[in-house]
Amino acid sequence: MFRDRKNIVQLIFILTGAVFIVRLFFIQVLDSRYKFEAQNNVMRRIIEYPYRGLIYDRNGKILVFNTPVFDLMVVPKEVQIKDTLTFCERFGITKEEFVKKIKEAREYSTVKPTAFLKQLSIADFAKVQDFLIDYPGFYPQARTIRSYPHHSLANALGYIGEISKKQLEKQENKYYLQGDYIGISGLEANYEELLRGQRGVKYMMVNVRGVEKGSFRDGIYDTISIPGENLYTSIDLELQQYGERLMENKIGSVVAIEPATGEILAFISSPTYDPNILTGRHFSENYRKLEKDSLKPLFNRPLMAMYPPGSIFKIVQALVGQQMGILTPNTTFACNKSWGPNCHSHPSPQNLMGSLQWSCNPYYYMAFRNMIQQGKDENKFKDSRIGYIQWRDLIMSYGFGHKLGVDLPNMKAGYIPSPEFYDKWYGYNGWKHSTIRSLDIGQGEVMIVPIQMANMAATIANQGFYYAPHFVKHIGKNKEVPEQYKEKHYAKVDKKYYPVIIDAMEMVVNGGTAAVFNKIEGMKVCGKTGTVQNPHGKDHSVYITFAPKEDPKIAIAVFVENAGFGAMTAAPIARLMMEKYLNDTITKPHIEKYILEKDFIHRNKTVLKK
Amino acid sequence: MRQDDNLSKSIDWLSVAFYAFFVIAGWLNVFAAVYDAEAHQNIFDFSLNSGKQLVWIGTSVVLIILILVIDYKFYNTFAYIMYGLMILLLIATIFLGTEAKGSRSWFEIGSLRIQPAEFAKFITALALATYLGKINIKFEKLQTKLMCALIIGLPGICILLQNETGSVLVFSSFILVLYREGLSPIILILGLVSVILFILALIFPPISIAQVVVGLGILALIYIITSRKKSTKVRTLVIRSSFVLVGCIICIATAFSVDFFVNKVLQDHQRKRILVLVNPDIDPLGAGYNVTQSKIAIGSGEFLGKGFLEGTQTKFDFVPEQSTDFIFCTIGEEHGWLGSTILIVMYVLFMMRLVYLAERQKDKFARIYGYSVASIIFFHFMVNIGMTIGIFPVIGIPLPFFSYGGSSLWSFTILLFIFLKLDAHRRQLLSH
Question: Smallest CA–CA separation between A2 and chain B, in Å?
Answer without folding.
Answer: 6
